[in-house]
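agent: user wants the full assembly modeled, not chains individually. Plan: 1) parse entity lines 2) check alphabet per entity 3) run joint structure prediction 4) return tokens. Steps 1-2 passed, two entities, 1087 residues total. Proceeding.
--- entities ---
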Amino acid sequence: MDDISRYVADEDDLAFEYELQRTPQSVVTWRRYLDSWKEDGRPDSHIVWLYERFCRQFQSDMEIWEDYIQWLLQRCGKSVEYTDIMELFIRSLSYCAKNCEDLCIMFLEFAIGQLDLKYIRMAFDISLKRLPRDGHGRVWEKVLRFIDETLSPLTRNEETEYDDIFEELSILIYKGLFEKTDEGNHELDLWTSLILKRYLDVCPSEQRPLNVIRIAQTGDHDFLYTAYRKFYGNGPQSTLPYSTNLLYLESLESLNKREAYEQFITELAGVFPENWVELKVTLVKFYIKSAQHDKIVHVLEDSLARTQSVQEFSVLYSTYLNYEKAFIDIVLQELKNNSQVIGDWEQQVESHLSRLQGLIESYEIRLNDIKIRRNPNLVSNWSERATLFPAAAGKCDVYSHAILTIDPYRVNIPGSLGKLWCAYAELYWEAGDFDSAREVYDRGLRVPYPYLQDLEELWTTWAEHELESFSIEFAIKLMEDALQVPENPELLVDRFKEGDKKVPAQAVVFTSLKLWLLYLDFTESLSYDSSEYTEKTIALYEQMIALKVATPMVFINYAHFLQEHREELSSFQVYERAIGTFPPETQLEIWDLYLTEGTAEDSPLAKEQIRDLFDQALENLTNGRIDCKTIFLLYSDFEEQCGLLNRCCEILLQGARKTANLEDKITLWQMCISKAKALLGNEESRKLYEECIQSLPNSQVMKFVVDFARTEAVLGEIERARELFKYGAQLLPPGRNGLLWEKWDEFEVRNGNKESYKDMLKLKRKLEKEMRIETEAESQLEGNIAFVAASKQNVVNPEEIELNI
Amino acid sequence: MDSIADNYASSDSEIDSDEKKSSLGSSSETLLARLPAEIAEKYSLHPSIPKTSSMSLRGANKGVQYWSTFLYYEWRPSRQERMQLMKIVENFNSYCRESKLPLTKQLYFEPLHVSSLGAPLALHVSLSQTINFESEADRDTLFKSLQAKVRSSTELNPFMMIFQPILRVLPSYAKDSLFLILPVDPGIKNREMTPINKIIREALTETFPQKRAEEIQKLSCMPPSTHLSIAMATNAPRSALDNLNILNTLIPEEQINDKIEFPVNSLKFDKNRQVLSIPLGS
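--- prediction returned ---
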């Protein structure tokens, strides 16, 4: 009050002062007094002096304090220091115990705005004390936002960027082996950590994961370690994001808790299996940093053996390769630069070099490992693996492992497993170890294959090897053993078909055409020198027929075999049986051969027998709607050779009539007419031409019309010939009937006169016109589709579609 | 068989020492290890094939479905040993053929160590008859019991099976064929065959508590009769089968010149088409 004279300057001031003396509790007077000073533009120090008096008078009135602070805030940084405002906040709040929520928040916001951690902390503490519990959320929100937006970015560790994994591993190896630094020397944000410690006690459980991240960002690993264990225990949490689990892992690394780290990362790979490769690489880096090199190879080898995809393999293989290279590189450099280095480094480098070489050499094999792991029952994977081993011993190992691994019931490619066994046996055979090869074949034949092809492969390969290296008799013995016919063959075949792979293919080996044919090949080759084998071969053919495994070709071979052994009649009986066995579609070829051989010069068949056969063949085949041009031709030739010329033509006529295939029909007509002309004379061809021309479509008939006309001309029937040309001319438009018009022209030049030639030309013009008009008229009939030329603008076509292309 | 015998002489890449090892993973550049025992055991028997219309797809008659096993010591002779066995059988066949006695003249023995197609086969010293079970679980029980007993036995260790250098002839179970056998050495019968027989009988008693002691004894092969069958004469004449004692006394003693023996490391147990091994002294 001593300085009051400095501030009370005029009559108005005095009036206000007297008024305040009288009514010090009048807020209105105080406000009017302040307003008048503000209006008068009094210095800020005067107004502060007055506000201070005002606030002292109403110490617990938040509104007045707020008003004062708001006025000061407008001057912050100009005439007022922010620290003064902070102190004012503190002072004001020290007087107000209640209803100061807004002031607290204002204080906190102001402190945060000034980035002053000391005052933020004070504002935060005061706010939590003064505000009721339900108002704490607002306070935490402000502080946490400040941490997230302002502090965390400042303390976040920037990941060191490396050019490639080799560089990264090199640096880590060097640091781990030769540069012992204090691992605990890292950035720590204790201010935030302390705040977060308090928050962790009160925060809702759903906020905890976020808080773990915040704690991690403070670098306070001790706190993170404690907090994580308190709320989540020792192991990884599937409820937390993967990245949050990694933060805890980092804290374990930072705190050098090696065992806990190893256990946690192993369990983490189980909880997040999609990240297992990344985690293994992280573990490798951990071991490198902590110089535990003895554990790295085990981890990498074990991990590579688990990979299921090329992508996973590539990451791990690249890490492994770069680790070995980097280790050798770093250690050699260090040995070169620093002769004081102590330890068995040279030995270690040698061991790493040998591993690196092995790693490079085994790349293809390791890739193949993945394929096998993904599908161990896919035989091609094993075959591919065998090719990666140049030596027979290595291939042997591959095949034996394959056989022990593969479940024959899960092999889906018929014959593939059998081929693998054969390849295995082949190795022994080529090495001259025939006993072992036979043992392999023998065991291979004991596998319960779902497919017959596997057994076929084994039996044929074994037999062929025995044939090449030893004797055909032994190969025959093998086939004899393979093709033993059971007592109830049909039942077994049914069982096999119904069995859905449960009945092994061994049950139906006797149905294998491939093996029967091989067996026949063997016995037939011996049959020319030994009657025993001739009989055996015949017995085999008979057995195949009885078992219904004989194909048409087997019957034909059987017939030929008998013919070669001078058993023509028996061979014809085989044809007869084949014809009785197979449907008409298959019979044609058999008949063809049968009749060709039956009509041969040295055939033992009588002519009548042959005729019966032809008739039977034609009846069977034509009833089955099979075109049998060759049989008609053969039959016709036969009758011609027998001198029955009419019959010869008659057969061809029948053929032409009964054959449906147009090409065959035309051939037969041609043959029929030409034979009739040659054997019976031109006159006889007239009725054939007539029928032929009527039975064939117009497009195919013109050659016959021209021939017919030419024949008539030869016979001197010029007018008949001309009429034929006229007839033919009307069958097709002149534009498509070039052959006829050309031949007619020649005919008229040779046989006609000017008049007839003119008539021909007149007819041609007329037909050109008529046939064109007819075409147009036809197309304009109702319902027919007509093209509309684009140039005809005035044509209205309701069907026309406008395409905007 | 002659052609197969001829083939033996041409095969020279097999080495006995190699054969006595399990060959998986042990390969050399020049010599190929023989077919691993694991494969031979995995595919020991041919798959069963339904034979009659009443058979189920599992290969057994619906009405009398049963499971079975057979216990034995197995020997996979090497090439040299196979030649030795072949020589014994051939010599014995020559003896029979050249003998003046009608009793032996009609006998012809086929070797058992090689199949009719020339593939080497394993030989067995039987330790049991074929044992039939009503359920698969019973068979598993016997296996587990044997496994436990063999493992805990202090008397059972890998040993060398030795045979007496004499040949004997025994009839088949159906009494329609004859086997040419090598009796097990008496010392082995007393030392090694007695404890395994005891274990087998105990395990059988546990598996079949309802069976009487005589029935259990019948299922196992008693040590005095243990032998190795090396050849078989099918369709043996009745006279030979009826006069086995005389036949055995006629067999000359000097038939075997070389010692026949093989190492025994495990007890074999047939299960379906595969063979399970119970290692001795593990």
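agent: reporting back. The longest strand of chain B covers residues 227-233. The domain at 2-279 of chain B is CATH 3.90.1140.10 (Cyclic Phosphodiesterase; Chain: A,).
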